[in-house]
Amino acid sequence: MKSTAIKSIVILISGRGSNMRSIVEARLPLRVAAVISNRADAAGLGYAREKGIAVETIDHRGFPTREAFDAALAAAIERHRPDLVVLAGFMRILGDAFVARFAGRMINIHPSLLPMFPGLHTHRRALEEGVKVHGATVHFVTPSLDHGPIVAQAAVPVLPGDDEQTLAARVLAQEHRIYPMALRWFAEERLVIRDGVVRVTDSKAGGDDTAQLLMAP
Ligand code: GRF
Hints:
Blueprint lengths: L6 E7 L4 H8 L4 E8 L6 H7 L4 E3 L8 H14 L4 E4 L8 H6 L4 E5 L11 H8 L3 E8 L9 E8 L6 H24 L3 E4 L2 E5 L6 E2 L3 E3 L2
Parallel strand pairs: 1-2, 1-4, 2-3, 4-5, 7-11
Antiparallel strand pairs: 5-6, 6-7, 8-9, 9-10
Helix pairs in contact: 1-6
């Protein structure tokens, strides 16, 4: 049974917030209940404020342990009662208890074609490996870092002459397409996880959709 109530999300950021912005600008059938950052100076907070979105900072440096920070963050999120927690450039590793608490209702975007290049410096590593295809992945969050059921991927070519910046920019442009796309499917209750694999049900035909891969020119 599909619920008729509009779903709400809380977006977590640490910096620039361009993915957050792409989500807000996509005018999805979702309510952005709050944007929460672990850094008061995250550039993205200004944009969220301008848009009238509730903004909070929970500075990880104010907590003695990761567990204490995670607990405060979880409490802040739960106050907004979101259907989904959206990690958008949130640069803190979240503990297992936190991830378990939000199991199945937390999603992330990672700048590589997972399971290749989990962790940091994905574009540099892609160049060092000489891969010819790179990209980004939207996935549900599980306790292992940058791993979990894949909702959508965008693939881009690695071109001769690319450096970290040009490759990052090419990938980021696609991140701004797939994250709103994935969240629209969530809003429409079209995401089904079966045996660890995400399918997007086609709301019209009731069958399976294969549009989970975007290929950039
Ligand atoms: C993006 O590349 C995202 O994939 C990664 O961190 C970066 C955040 O960028 N997790 P922004 O803050 O959304 O501009």
